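Friendly challenge for the regulars: who can give me the structure tokens for this chain first? No prize, just bragging rights.
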Amino acid sequence: MYKIPLSKPSYLPYIDEVLSATEKVLRSGFIAQGEQVEQFEQMISDYTGCKYAVAVSSGTAGLFLCLKAVGIGPGDEVITSPYSFIASSNVIVHTGATPLFVDIDRDTYNIDLSKLDLTLEKLKTVKAYMPVDCFGNPKDTSNYNLATPIIIDSCESFGSKLDRPFDAAVYAFYGNKQITTAEGGCIVTDNKRIAEYCRAVRNQGRAPGDQWLDSTLLGWNFRMSDIHAAIGLVQLKHLDDILERRKRVIEQYKENEIILSQRIDYKKFNPFVFVVEVNDRDSVMKFMLNKGIEVKPYFPTIHKQKCMNEYNHLSFPVAEKVASKTLALPYYSSIANQDVNYVCKTLKEAIKYGV
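First reply, four minutes later:
Bragging rights claimed.
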């Protein structure tokens, strides 16, 4: 156990409320998808301004369902980033489609469409665009000119602005995210057809009007439970406080001259991890771990992962360079001031002496 962990869930300052909320669900005897999920979806819809919100078992499940909803399948290609959590590409492969990787922008870490070279042949197979809000940095989609659906991987950016074109976006609520449901995610969209499809197939394909245990569509079990939703609802009620606490941590890092390595718009950005670039990253990481500070490399490039053998031969120099330098520092809403100061002091020490 590290003295200062990389992350802690955002519900901890409100633990008594979470325990009360989950106990209420448990005592009710109704622990599967029910009223708590419906309330959770409504609060997400209200917060984002989207007409529809569909809670699911994970952000990964949400991305997969959105791709299926817009008809992605074998023979198709989906434009996406090679610098992301691998789930954003796994879901493409699981539809039978192929990820079409495009290198990233050096400053924002988001996909750089100016590096996309589409031949006429490629134009026939590219059927969707799935940009990633890397570390929560919103990707501007307004300059996307192809007539294909835009599915935003917003799994890292809950609380950041969603003021850009999209057909659907997906949030994730893993334990290190801005808010957590332990496991869980949510699809948001203004497209009724996408919402209805995702709502049905997350529940074994039961469409509106289906009788008990009847299924119109071929679906999956990607439901969120009422227990998970209850955990999330408490945090949604305290969301302004959670995001403000996280912003104060960023400010404290800045006061210690430790700056996020991405170019960001602080009015739109609520990161899920605090990432810096350092030379000799692995040595710095080892030094800090030995000092009781949990740090981790974020992210390895997807195209070099063992499970992506088909893409290992590709080269995306910007993504690869960034991936060799980025290091995530402890960052969560309840981190103590003295702990942030200790992280900064130790990081500067590691860099100064070239450990």
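The chain has a mean pLDDT of 95. The beta strands are 52-56, 77-80, 98-101, 126-129, 151-153, 168-172, 185-189, 274-277, 296-297, 326-329. Your move, everyone else.
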